[in-house]
Every structure is written in C-alpha cells, then in structure tokens.
Amino acid sequence: MKMFKRLRGVAAVLTFAVAQPVLAETDYGFSNQQTKRTVDTFTYGIEQCATVDVVYRLDCLRQTYSQTVRVISKASVYWEAEVALTRVNRGLYSFVRANMDAEVGRARVNGGRIKAVTEESLPQARAQYMAAVDRAAEEMRSGSSVEARYFEPIAEAILASKELLQ
C-alpha cells in the first residue's frame, strides 16, 4: 500500500511537471464569450453615438465606456482591460464636465441622457481622446500572450471608435 501511494505521488509530480508549460498558457477565467460580450456592448454603444451630433459624442462615448466597464468587470481576469477602459472613461467624464455647453439641452441615446460640449473644445477633445485610446489599446496589447489574445478584439474596437471624432 505504501508503494502505491508513493507511485501515485510521483505520478502526480511528473504530471504537473509535464503539464506546467501548458497550464501557464491557460487561464480558465478568460473566455471568448466574455470578450465578445464586451466588444458587442462597446460596438452597440458606438453605433448609437454615431447617430448624434458631434457635440454630444464625447458624453455618449463616456456612457459607452461606462457600460462596457460594467460588462467587463464581471470577469476579474480582465482587470487590466477594465483599468484601461476606466481610465478613458474618467478622462471623458472630466473633459465633458469641464467643457459642457450649458446653452444646449441634453439628448437621449442608448438609454441615457447625454450632454453637449462646446464647439470650441472639440479639437482639444479629439486630441485627448485619440491619445487616451492609443494608450489603452497599447496597455491591452502589452500583457501576456493569453491576455493579448483575449484583449486584442477589445483594443481593435476602441481604436475603431476614433473615427467618431474625426
């Protein structure tokens, strides 16, 4: 009986030693479904933002990032992507708040009410948004090979959103 237990222990150690390289590349928290859900939420929001006047798009983008962060936060292994998206969201929030056009009313889109920014602030908004999106995409692409695999579609989606402000 002792010999059987020793052999079983040796087998377990050998199995782990052989499987360790495979396990290092496999993280059971990542999933194609979670990535797709995140991209779909973001893409739907961007499609809605494209229907409003450009002065409303920054706040619409902020709302889209906020909704996307709520979706991605349900999977803790996506925390690095969540942080990158949250950083863009906070930048948008601060910019909209500082440059809100009080003369223009709010618009309703994608289940929420959005604010307009002043026409004069749009060039600065474009520059800040482009830089923030580039940084977020770079952060998502700079992780491990597993992270890069699951974050790449999200990075592509946010990079595509830059067209809204051009």
Distance between the termini: 74 Å
- Indicate how many domains the architecture comprises: 1
Summing up helix and strand content along with how strands pair, one would put the structural category as mainly alpha
> What percent of residues adopt helix (DSSP H or I)?
55-70%
On the 0-100 scale, what is the average pLDDT? 86
Strand content: under 5%
- Number of E-state strands: 2
Biggest sheet, open or closed, and with what strands and sense? 2 strands, antiparallel
Task: Give the radius of gyration.
Answer: 22 Å
Biggest sheet: strand arrangement: 1-2
Structure characterization notes:
The protein has 166 residues and is mainly α. 70% of the residues lie in helices and 4% in strands. It is built from six helices and two strands; from the N terminus they run ααααββαα. A hairpin with a 2-residue loop joins strand 1 and strand 2. It is elongated.
Short précis:
By secondary structure, the protein is mainly alpha-helical.
Helices and strands, with pairings:
Elements: H1 2-24, H2 32-49, H3 54-72, H4 79-98, E1 107-109, E2 112-114, H5 122-141, H6 145-160
Helix pairs in contact: 2-3, 2-6, 3-4, 4-5, 5-6
Can you give keywords for this protein?
single chain; 166 residues; mainly alpha; two-stranded antiparallel sheet; 6 helices; elongated
